[in-house]
Design brief:
The protein is α+β, with helices and mostly antiparallel strands and 113 residues long. The protein is 21% helix and 34% strand. It has a 3-stranded antiparallel beta sheet, with no helix packed on it. Strands 3-2-8 form a 3-stranded antiparallel beta sheet, with no helix packed on it. The chain has a two-stranded antiparallel ribbon with strand order 5-6.
């Protein structure tokens, strides 16, 4: 897996299924987004040249550390339990939106100076 992005939870807003704001991150933790399939790979052609092939895939892994007592951990556990019970591949997808929070950099800069 190739890590594409790493976010600091304090600077990030994460939303599960468009309704639940992710909460309960331990201090100094990260949100990591990785590509499950390499973005590119090299191949040797019949005339012995090396080419780069781009792979298109929408498969990603989102990794985040949460406290075990976090409400988000409880929701993710319930989603996993439903998935285990139904075994329905078509319903196994859950949307997770991750965005940087707006920060007033001018205010941050003044508070540091």
């Amino acid at each position: 897996m190739t890590t594409l992005w790493t976010f600091i939870p304090e600077d990030t807003s994460a939303l599960i299924a468009g309704t639940h704001n992710v909460v309960g991150f331990p201090d100094e933790s990260f949100i990591r987004i990785s590509k499950d399939i390499p973005v590119t790979e090299t191949r040797r052609t019949t005339d012995n040249r090396i080419t780069r092939v781009k792979k298109t895939s929408n498969m990603y892994t989102i990794e985040m550390s949460l406290f075990s007592v976090s409400p988000t951990n409880e929701i993710l556990t319930k989603l996993w339990q439903v998935d285990e019970l139904t075994k329905n591949v078509d319903d196994a997808y859950v949307s997770i939106s991750i965005a940087k929070k707006y920060r007033d950099w001018e205010t941050d800069r003044k508070s540091v100076v």
